[in-house]
């Protein structure tokens, strides 16, 4: 929000949009690896004063010492104690060099992404689930000879996003689905550790004769530009504008049945379905996977409380971290409309983000939609829990155009497992369950 940040992996961004420093292309340079690793070392040592010296002026304002301290403590609260740095790589995004230091924590692996300007100052900082180097192996339900893929561009101008359109082979007009990410700077596959649930969905549905469009999320592709609108940033800029652009692209694409274009939203994407549907009433229908119904700040607290409780005991450090989270939640709740242009950051997001979502009740708002809806839920999901699924049911069960289904063994990624779901589970390779693919395909073709 992702957008502020909720829990690490799939449900949220942890970090701060890079500042509006000038976008000057710089040659990729290994010279940036040393300062990036040194910066991480300073965070581990909690030497935030020296760590701050790596920031440019705007970052120092956006992320002062106290906020940097709070961000690090929140990360440790979710990922566990820091163990070691395990690797680095350099990428170029929007004219910036990005050094990614992969770090191993007690509960999970994290990619610390540092955006550098030509003067080797950090102008942006993000934390995201570590990308696995493991090769993706398609699930058994994928029929690779049943579809083809081509590159696509979603939107125009400075926010244009690279994407992939997966098209079934054969003649005729195909129904199509746009995939909408959860929170965080996610790629077109919604990669979480070694898992790629959006690729599973795209290839699985295409194997069933359904076209799928997926794309890089704006907070990943254009992180370096988002600082320029930081004080006006909401879910509209994060997600909704790009979904509408993706639907518009499909309407202009050869081979697509323009009367059967659907939107599938996962987590945050599912939560925003009512707003998307209101913005474009001509969308044929919606599939909601683990759609959140709780205010994001409440979900942050609930998810972390759950994680801390897994070992049945809560350390003093965890108790302190939980108390800090409660304070942050209270600050979000106490925001006033006059704070909308403040430079304050709460959970990494500006007041505009939180104020925009205040009072938003997704399940109630969905009552106004005329389109068909399918709402699916993994019963082992600790990020969007069954009580949130039940809220959708309570609001919409009387409407004949809504279908509900939950799956006892599936987690937040709709991957099968056993027992209580944990963060570490997201580091285990898996695939979206075959039954989910078939249920969605059958519903679309109904």
Description:
The protein has an eight-stranded mixed beta sheet, sandwiched between helices. Helices cover 34% and strands 22% of the residues. The chain folds into two domains: 14-129, Roll (Nuclear Transport Factor 2, Chain: A), CATH 3.10.450.590; 144-296 and 352-445, Alpha/Beta hydrolase fold, catalytic domain (Rossmann fold), CATH 3.40.50. It has 446 residues and is of the alpha/beta class. The protein has helices at residues 33-44, 48-52, 57-62, 65-79, 197-206, 218-221, 223-226, 235-251, 268-271, 273-279, 296-309, 316-333, 351-357, 362-365, 386-396, 434-445, and strands spanning 14-16, 82-93, 96-105, 109-116, 122-129, 147-154, 161-168, 174-180, 211-215, 256-266, 285-289, 372-378, 402-407.
């Amino acid at each position: 929000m992702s957008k502020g940040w909720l829990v690490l992996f799939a449900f949220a961004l942890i970090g701060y949009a890079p500042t509006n420093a000038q976008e000057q292309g710089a040659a990729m340079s290994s010279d940036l690896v040393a300062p990036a690793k040194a910066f991480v070392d300073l965070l581990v040592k909690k030497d935030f004063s020296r760590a701050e010296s790596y920031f440019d002026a705007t970052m120092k304002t956006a992320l002062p010492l106290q906020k940097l301290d709070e961000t690090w403590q929140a990360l440790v609260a979710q990922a566990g104690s820091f163990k070691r740095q395990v690797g680095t790589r350099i990428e170029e995004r929007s004219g910036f060099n990005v050094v990614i230091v992969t770090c191993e924590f007690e509960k999970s692996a994290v990619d610390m992404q540092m955006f550098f300007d030509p003067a080797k100052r950090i102008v942006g900082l993000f934390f995201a689930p570590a990308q696995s180097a493991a090769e993706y192996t398609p699930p058994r339900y994928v029929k690779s000879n049943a579809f083809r893929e081509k590159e696509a561009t979603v939107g125009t101008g400075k926010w244009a996003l690279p994407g992939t359109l997966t098209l079934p082979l054969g003649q005729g007009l195909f129904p199509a689905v746009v995939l909408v990410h959860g929170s965080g700077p996610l790629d077109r596959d919604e990669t979480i550790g070694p898992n790629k649930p959006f690729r599973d969905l795209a290839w699985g549905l295409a194997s069933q004769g359904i076209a799928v469009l997926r794309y890089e999320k704006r907070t990943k592709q254009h992180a370096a530009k988002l600082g320029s609108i930081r004080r006006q940033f909401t879910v509209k800029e994060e997600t909704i504008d790009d979904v509408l652009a993706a639907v518009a692209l499909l309407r202009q694409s050869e081979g697509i049945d323009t009367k059967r274009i659907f939107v599938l939203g996962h987590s945050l994407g599912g939560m925003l379905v009512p707003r998307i549907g209101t913005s474009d009433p001509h969308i044929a229908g919606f599939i909601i996977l683990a759609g959140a119904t709780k205010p994001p700040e409440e979900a942050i607290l609930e998810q972390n409380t759950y994680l801390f409780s897994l070992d049945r005991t809560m350390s003093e450090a965890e108790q302190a971290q939980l108390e800090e989270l409660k304070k942050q939640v209270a600050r979000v709740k106490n925001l006033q409309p006059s704070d909308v242009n403040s430079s304050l950051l709460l959970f990494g997001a500006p007041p505009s983000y939180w104020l925009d979502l205040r009072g938003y009740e997704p399940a109630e708002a969905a009552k106004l939609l005329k389109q068909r809806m399918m709402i699916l839920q993994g019963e082992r999901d600790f990020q969007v829990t069954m009580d949130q699924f039940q809220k959708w049911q309570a609001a919409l069960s009387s409407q004949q155009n809504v279908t509900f289904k939950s799956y006892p063994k599936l987690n937040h990624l709709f991957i099968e497992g056993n027992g209580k779901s944990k963060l570490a589970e997201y580091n285990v390779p898996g695939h979206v369950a075959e039954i989910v693919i078939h249920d969605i395909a059958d519903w679309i073709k109904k």
